[in-house]
Amino acid sequence: MMTFKKLLTLALLASVTLNFSACSILYGEKGFFRGKEKDYLKTGQIKEMTVPEGISSPTFEPIYAIPKVYSTDEFGDRPELEDYVVPRPSAINIDKSAVGAKIQKLGAKRWIFLDAPTSQIWPRTQNFLSELGITVEYNNPREGIIDTTAITYKDDRSTHSRFRIKLEKGIHPDTTEVHIVHMQYSADQAPDTQFEWPEASHDTQKEADLLNDLASVLIENLSNNSASLMGQNVGGSLKVEFLSDSNEPIMRLRLSRNRAFATLSHSLKKDGFVLWEESPDQGLFYIGYQNTDKKGLLSRWFGKKISPDNAPDTLANLLQKMPRTAETKSMFPLQSTASSERSDSAKTDAEQGFIAVLKRNDKVMDFVIRDTNGNALEREQAKALLRLVRKNLI
């Protein structure tokens, strides 16, 4: 005879079974309220709608037409779909040893480098001057210029000082450079006197003091991502860009010749490059390349080739053996030699590396990589090498 407890257990089991059965009957695959969320997986191609004879068909046009997209890379080339290789994304931190902000120096010139866009640095620089009680006489966001009014130092009442702070876009995207110039003049001069800003500071110590103070403030607030709409266009264009000249990929640097050569020399010692020899006067670099990325774009040209630590030749010897053509004479500092000493058909070993050239082009510097015969590289190879060089510019 069943006890009450057993009867209760059986009743509960029967209730659960009925509930599941009811759910299956009502909502299952063959239920009355069948779920249709997966029906799209069973759909196939349907026949195109046909209009019976004697009835004209209206013209159907898409309401949201998708235009043709002609994408180009940074050199202006339109990639072919079948040949296109998706490049790796740019690293967030280009240089592993880089910091958010630092003071860089080349010769007598000093400037602040900041890993932040000008839209963030522009308002912070204005706030810095305001907190010091320094009045801004003139500012031009497009040119990135801030000029102060006259300042009198307590230890020198006989002169007035003014500062020009200039913000410029850096070598890499979303970076900023801050340059300061100090001007000093006699306190006896009329306030409305027109002054011409010097190329270099009159007092480098006063320039350095303001630069250090500004750098400290900017570094402390670098984590704050607030920005100014006005500051988005501050400082003009980036200092480095890619383009093509006579169908040859080049890298253009909006830098002084000395700084351009110095930053290229730094980059050509990293990420597989070997800098064998350089000539600052001629603007030449004799380099090798050892592929460090087995799956990268450069692997198709270099594979596992290893560049020796010691140069296989000298730069002077390569220039001596280089064929004298109109193109090589315009690109390289070639000396005329007697035909008995050298033939125009002279060749060098293609495995001997590359000769990179830095040449002035009006107010900018152009950087090109050629083989040791002075010939232009295969276009995609040149582009891949230039991208790698730019990665480590400072």
Please outline what is shown here.
Helices cover 25% and strands 23% of the residues. With 394 residues, the protein is α+β, with helices and mostly antiparallel strands.
Topology:
Layout: H1 4-27, E1 101-106, E2 109-114, H2 118-132, E3 136-140, E4 145-148, E5 151-153, E6 156-169, E7 176-186, H3 204-220, E8 240-245, E9 248-253, H4 257-267, E10 273-279, E11 284-289, H5 299-302, H6 315-321, H7 326-331, E12 354-361, E13 364-371, H8 379-391
Antiparallel strand pairs: 1-2, 2-7, 3-4, 4-6, 5-6, 6-7, 8-9, 9-13, 10-11, 11-12, 12-13
Give a structural overview.
There is one protein chain. The protein is α+β, with helices and mostly antiparallel strands and 394 residues long. Among the domains are: 101-187 and 199-233, 2-Layer Sandwich (Alpha-D-Glucose-1,6-Bisphosphate, Chain A, domain 4); 240-391, Outer membrane protein assembly factor BamC (TATA-Binding Protein, 2-Layer Sandwich). The chain contains eight helices and 13 strands. The strands form two sheets. Strands 1, 2, 3, 4, 5, 6 and 7 form a seven-stranded antiparallel β-sheet that branches. A six-stranded antiparallel β-sheet has the order 8-9-13-12-11-10, with helices on one face. A hairpin with a 2-residue loop joins strand 12 (354-361) and strand 13 (364-371). The longest helix is centred in the N-terminal third of the chain and has 24 residues, at 4-27. The chain is extended, with a radius of gyration of 34 Å. The termini are far apart. Mean pLDDT is 81; it is low at 338-347.
